[in-house]
Amino acid sequence: MQALVKATAGPGLTLTEWADPTPGPHDAVVKVAATSLCGTDAHIYRWDEWAQQRIHPPRIIGHELCGHVVEVGREVSLVKVGDYVAAESHLTCGRCFQCRTGQAHVCKNYKILGIDRDGSYAQYVALPEGVLWHTASDIPPELACVQEPLGNAVDAALAEDLTGHTVLITGCGPTGLFAAAVARTAGAATIIASDVSDYRLGLAKQVGVDHVLNVRTESPERVAAAILEITAGEGVDASLEMSGDPTALHQAFRAVKNGGRVTLFGIPTGPVSFDLPNEMIFKGIRVYGITGRRLFSTWYRLAGLFKAGLNIRPVVTHSFPLKEFATGFELIQSGQCGKVVLFP
Fold first, then answer.
1. Does residue 296 have a cis bond before it (omega within 30 degrees)?
2. 57: closest CA among 66, 45, 69, 68?
3. Residues taking part in catalysis
4. Is the pTM of this model over 0.85?
5. What does the pLDDT read at residue 232?
6. What's the whole-number mean pLDDT along residues 60-76?
7. In terms of Cα–Cα distance, which of 203, 178, 180, 200 is closest to 36?
8. What is the CATH classification number for the domain harbouring 95?
9. Residue 246 sits in which domain range?
10. Rounded Cα distance, 148 and 112, in Å
11. Other C-beta atoms within 10 Å of 224: how many?
12. What is the average per-residue pLDDT within 137-151?
């Protein structure tokens, strides 16, 4: 089969011929219909400091996918040949305290598809049957393959009920855009989004955001004043911080009203200092840290959102054959894209 491999310790990836995977007793082989690029993969492509410490070549990377089961191991009972599936990328141990108490999304020993075992940037991938998710046949591959990152957005947006609430989303990368679409479908009254890119703020409008603020062209004071004006001086009920940028983090905490909530998903590149009394404690707010997806309650919730009319199509802006992977990574680097999908 053809596969996209981190073949050596250095920048770039290699498209090469690779042995077809064979399933273990509890594995299924999936013929990949579509696989999407993630920021994690961009780190690996660039071979930055994190990638150098985490990745051990050779490795087929990629962890967001959908496809059809073409072979199953002898003990497999959850899927069968022909099933249309997506996959949870976190392979949990099932033995630690977190796994045994319903918190497998923060398993102490989890492995990640495309990092700790060969991933989805290939024509075929072998996966444990327990991470496969039956997907409705009416969801096209370019949307079905992004269910894994979409699940991050579901958890971020719906850590608490949003119905009738005002919501601020700081950062309109793909997961921030997904969060906006989820908030719209879940009944948020008013959605405000901020970003440094007019291109991505335009995508935000397409998924239902009511007000967009460009924090590159507007001062922090003007942005704060605009949020207060939109919310009649109250501040927002919920801030979803999706960028990891220190300025955006402070904006998220300062914009939320007393007694509101802040969800943190974006990852800063270094330590960030806060005015704890004034930004958090005296405001009596609730703070949630989001990592991964709740297994598998998030996936069930996501299936319901699709049935309720969740529209993520504007977020998937580009698609390419696998051999044009470099163009996809260049787009991610430029910021002039939403989600990029590859077809093996």
1. yes
2. 45
3. 40, 43
4. yes
5. 97
6. 98
7. 178
8. 3.90.180.10
9. 153-289
10. 12
11. 17
12. 97
